[in-house]
């Protein structure tokens, strides 16, 4: 199983905001009534922070960064940033422990390792955040606006994959004057209608104001069918239903769940079976409200695209997988992308296969060696990755495409060589998608032994990883020459922000250059600031960081440092919620798998234990202090108020 890890460069990100229509009105020195020419925002610049150098700082979650705004008349304003904790994963919010695992009846799942002292399983690993406003929701105070926050709890360290995961819905009171966020109440979201929630990693907010979650590291149905004690499905199911007679079904897990929050604070959950089954890091919807790009985490994974039949409705559509046609190998490489159509389906159609109890052997014929009619593939498995010889049984093409998307894609010629494909975000103005590849290595390198079934990707090893930019275009055709019904089809993919491996660890223990991003994971884009935010999940930096990268000036700034061994998660740039901006950012498992130098390790661990309840608490929170909408767009705001 993949271990979870965590984010950084230059201190001073000059962010040209040339497209920002901000204007500031000033008074003429000769006449208080005369209005001079409107002043525009010339640039914004993140003034970064240094990497921590002391044991105390290495054990903290903090920022000393700032955002500097320069106007065309020479006026400069600096906005210091600070980190605000909302809650720890092991704290109660309104009477409910935030990270508690619950069963199908909504009751806490108990750890009975010590039968005389059972305790609830509580996650140390908060991940995705969606912060949003639900129209018509009642305010919780006379001085605040009501907001909703959906948060993932990815797993529990001591029970990875065998105790069902969870999401919470937190009611937030947003101070109308300062924008400060205060958690008021929290409840666990009920997933019993969709058979529980597998490992939820990252997620996103859809353009229509719903939360799109994930189920990562899908259980291997072939392994499970051969031995149902493997792949964790059986123990997961028994824990969820509190029933030791249940066996479970791997085809219930590995999809994207969508959560709708209603104005009365109730929730509705659906799983989108027609969007394919693989190791969903997350799905991100393009501006057309139909096209979706995904992260597929693990080794030997695949780049997928989904085009829904209808806008704002992900219940039916067409699934595609990409073929990498390499152009360069340096610093993560670049390639043209060719899209292979896997099939069209509705959620209802695919759920019918699952409800009938379809098994891996109902979908595929297998061979232990090369044989006529069988094709060799090598794709990610939660248990093992090895060459398989497969053939789809007649009439089972649709089941294969949507329940075994990666295996079927490989049979059709799609590239299954991506490694640790993580976060995804969209730059709407420039028609770009950004995708993080945490570790550019293994199947992405040239197959020097010649033993793999395919070798499309042959880039140079870069263990520090890279974030890629995908160019979106319309009027594209698939591999068979058929039109793709989307104006947001990725046609070209290139490395944009990449790390630097060190030949030997530095004095603090870093294995990658601490002034460049290492092992990018979470991504989020601010349209107003023209900034790509990058969160790390690194096994190569002593501390993981959150970075701000301006897509116009190409400058990078470190804006948040997490405690050693923690992963930066839950990254979400919020441009305007009732006039306020935020960068949501959590941490998971502080102190886990530290690589800090031996001379500092004992002190760092001591401070982490003090700060994070002996490593039992993750943190949900946000970067505060960004300029308000009025401060960035004063002239526009004044005009509206008139």
Automatic annotation (TrEMBL):
The keyword rRNA-binding does not apply. The keyword Lyase does not apply. Keywords: Signal. Coiled coil: none annotated. Residues 1-26 form the signal peptide. PANTHER family: DUF839 DOMAIN-CONTAINING PROTEIN, SLR8030 PROTEIN. This is DUF839 domain-containing protein. The lineage of its organism: Bacteria, Bacillati, Bacillota, Bacilli, Bacillales.
């Amino acid at each position: 199983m993949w271990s979870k890890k965590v984010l950084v460069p230059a201190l001073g990100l000059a962010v040209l905001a040339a497209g920002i229509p901000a204007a500031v009105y000033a008074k003429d020195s000769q006449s208080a009534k005369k209005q001079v020419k409107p002043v525009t925002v010339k640039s914004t610049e993140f003034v970064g922070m240094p990497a921590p150098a002391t044991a105390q700082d290495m054990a903290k979650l903090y920022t000393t960064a700032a955002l500097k705004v320069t106007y065309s008349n020479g006026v400069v304003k600096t906005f210091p940033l600070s980190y605000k904790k909302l809650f720890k994963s092991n704290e109660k919010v309104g009477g409910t422990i935030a990270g508690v695992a619950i069963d199908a009846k909504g009751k806490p799942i108990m750890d009975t390792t010590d039968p005389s002292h059972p305790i609830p399983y509580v996650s140390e690993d908060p991940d995705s955040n969606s912060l949003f406003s639900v129209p018509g929701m009642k305010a919780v105070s006379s001085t605040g606006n009501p907001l909703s926050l959906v948060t993932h709890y990815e797993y529990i360290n001591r029970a990875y994959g065998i105790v069902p995961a969870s999401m919470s819905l937190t009611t937030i009171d947003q101070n109308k004057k300062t924008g400060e966020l205060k958690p008021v109440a929290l409840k666990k979201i009920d997933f019993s209608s969709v058979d529980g929630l597998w490992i939820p990693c990252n997620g996103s907010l859809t353009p229509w104001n719903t939360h799109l979650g994930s189920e990562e590291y899908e259980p291997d149905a072939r392994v499970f069918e051969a031995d149902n004690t493997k792949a964790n499905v059986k123990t997961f199911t028994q824990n969820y239903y509190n029933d030791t007679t249940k066996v479970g079904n791997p085809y219930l897990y590995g999809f994207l769940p969508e959560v709708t929050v209603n104005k009365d604070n109730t929730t509705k959950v659906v799983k989108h079976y027609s969007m394919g089954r693989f190791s969903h890091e997350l799905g991100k919807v393009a501006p057309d409200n139909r096209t979706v790009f995904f992260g597929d985490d693990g080794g030997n994974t695949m780049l997928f695209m989904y085009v829904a039949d209808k806008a704002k409705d992900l219940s039916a559509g067409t699934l595609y997988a990409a073929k990498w046609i390499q152009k360069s190998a340096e610093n993560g490489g670049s390639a043209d992308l060719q899209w292979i159509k896997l099939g069209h389906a509705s959620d209802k159609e695919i759920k019918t296969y699952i409800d009938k109890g379809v098994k891996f052997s109902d979908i595929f014929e297998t061979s232990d060696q090369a044989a006529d009619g069988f094709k060799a593939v090598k794709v990610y498995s939660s248990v093992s990755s090895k060459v398989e010889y497969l053939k789809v049984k007649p009439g089972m093409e649709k089941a294969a495409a949507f329940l075994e998307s990666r295996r079927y894609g490989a049979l059709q010629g799609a590239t299954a060589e991506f490694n640790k494909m993580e976060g995804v975000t969209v730059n709407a103005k420039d028609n770009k998608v950004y995708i993080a590849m945490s570790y550019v290595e293994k199947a992405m390198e040239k197959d020097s032994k010649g033993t793999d079934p395919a070798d499309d990707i042959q880039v140079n090893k870069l263990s520090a990883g890279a974030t890629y930019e995908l160019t979106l275009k319309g009027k594209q055709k698939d591999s068979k020459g058929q039109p793709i019904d989307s104006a947001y089809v990725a046609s070209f993919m290139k490395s944009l922000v990449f790390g630097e491996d060190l030949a030997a660890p530095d004095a603090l223990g870093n294995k990658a250059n601490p002034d460049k991003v290492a092992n990018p994971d979470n991504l989020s884009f601010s349209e107003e600031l023209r900034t790509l935010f990058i969160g790390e999940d690194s096994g190569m930096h002593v501390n993981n960081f959150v970075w701000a990268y301006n897509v116009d000036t190409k400058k990078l700034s470190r804006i948040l440092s997490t405690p050693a061994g923690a992963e930066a998660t839950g990254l979400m740039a919020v441009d305007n919620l009732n006039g306020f901006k935020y960068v949501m950012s959590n941490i998971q498992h502080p102190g886990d798998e530290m690589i800090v130098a031996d001379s500092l390790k004992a002190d760092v661990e001591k401070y982490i234990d003090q700060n994070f309840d002996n490593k039992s608490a993750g943190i949900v929170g946000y970067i505060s202090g960004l300029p308000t909408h009025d401060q960035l767009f004063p002239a526009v705001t004044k005009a509206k108020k008139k």
